[in-house]
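Running log. JK asked me to keep both predictions on one page so they can be read side by side. First protein, sequence followed by its tokens:
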Amino acid sequence: MANVTIGFGAALVVLGLVGFIGSGAESVTALIPTFFGVVFIVLGALAHAEGRRALTMHLAALLAVVGIAGSVTGLVDLPDLIAGNDLERPWAVAVQSIMAVALVVYLVLAVRSFIAARRARDDAAA
């Protein structure tokens, strides 16, 4: 899961940079996915150490929840964007929507990984 976390972090960095450049590089808030991505990359790298794996992966899952909460608002305006309606910040809607969906996928993968790790630990103890 550590490498998956690094991969999602790298994708968020790219998403933030594309959103920042695509929106005219006017607002630092367009880089929010990049900031989240950097933290995911750091947590993924720290998770390679056996003693820190559980803590860092749980922190990454918590970060995903925070990111979902902050970006889910983009999904509300996504139908208007797809319909071609004039929106004040179309890049923000697109980037927030992509970030929300990506983080939901990450969270599902993380929970599945936690369940598998628990089962493996229980099987080893039995």
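And the second, directly underneath as requested:
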Amino acid sequence: MSVEIKLNDRFARVELIQQNNNLLKIKVDDTIYDIDLMHTDDGTFSIIENNRSHDIELVPLDHPKKYLGYTLYKTFEVEVIDAETRYLLDRVGGQLDSDEKNIIAPMPGKIVRILVAEGEEVTKGQTVIILAAMKMESEYKATVDGIVSKISVAEGDTVEGNQILIEIE
């Protein structure tokens, strides 16, 4: 599995080569690292690589897969660009932010779970539906505060790309 990670203005291709519990062998661009990675209860990541310890805190931003990263001395923006995000970026010309109220399937897939009901109040950032596509499950969140006015699909349904799944007023 590989993803692209954007740190501030730098892009790096990160590939998981091997995992045994918290011991990972990863490839970053063309360099292979053996690391010990622990996700702590307080939301930080403890990474040991080549007998050096690094603690990193990732704070989620309003946009899925975007974070602010903090180390002892640095702050940086982090964006995870996986297959789903790359697909979305390619379809919308590089811009994912939207004022769109409706939840729309970005690609063909299968509805795994619907977490809201018609008439229910939702808040911006609340997960409302889970879609399986490209061998992974993705959570889709309300982009605005509002009321669910219509759910056009049911759990288990197969959907097409650009199909409206949930409408929010």
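Observation for JK regarding the second prediction: Helices lie at 83-91.
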